[in-house]
Design a protein that fits this description.
By secondary structure, this protein is α+β, with helices and mostly antiparallel strands. It folds into 2 domains: 1-31; 52-142, SH3 type barrels. The chain has 3 helices and 7 strands. It has a 4-stranded antiparallel sheet, with no helix packed on it. A 3-stranded antiparallel sheet has the order 1-2-3. The longest helix is centred in the N-terminal third of the chain and has 22 residues, at 5-26. It is elongated and about 105 Å long. The model has no long low-confidence stretch (mean pLDDT 80).
Length: 148
């Protein structure tokens, strides 16, 4: 194409494309409308999330800590000094422990996997309760004879 013909050709081609794009509206064609999805077209429901206890490793190894360990300030310590074990109930496969705050207050009933102040009940035995913190520290509360 010569120097003068190229701009004319581009102008004609652009006008033709614009005309083709406008034909449905100019000729009175129906413009498609959006409709809400039918109930059968809705998205499937998400499955139930697993229990929080399945994510214990995530809190035990924080992503943004250089050592991948919790800060010492955030590790609860001395659970043995703050709670005492009042009793243990074992009925079939169910195991429950009754803990009371030393400072006073309502007693707590915990099953294996339950938690108190960030500590998780790892195991309930006949005479003691084993607890583990998010940092991996372990503690044991034993049933003590009443003071006489």
């Amino acid at each position: 194409m010569s120097g003068e013909r190229a701009p004319r050709f581009l102008a004609v081609a652009t006008a033709a494309m614009a005309l083709l794009a406008l034909v449905p509206w100019v000729m009175g064609g129906a413009v498609p409308t959006l409709r809400p999805p039918a109930p059968s077209e809705t998205l499937p429901r998400l499955a139930a999330l697993p229990p929080y206890s399945d994510f214990a490793e995530i809190t035990a190894r924080p992503l943004f800590s250089p050592t991948r360990r919790p800060d010492a300030a955030s590790i609860p310590i001395g659970i043995e000094a703050r709670y005492r074990l009042l009793g243990i109930v074992i009925a079939g496969t169910a195991r429950h422990a009754l803990l009371a705050p030393v400072a006073g207050g309502a007693a707590l009933e915990l099953a294996e996997g339950g938690s108190v102040e960030g500590w998780t009940v790892q195991k309930i035995e006949r005479d003691r309760v084993l607890l583990v913190s998010p940092a991996g520290a372990k503690a044991s509360l034993s049933v003590q004879a009443p003071a006489r």
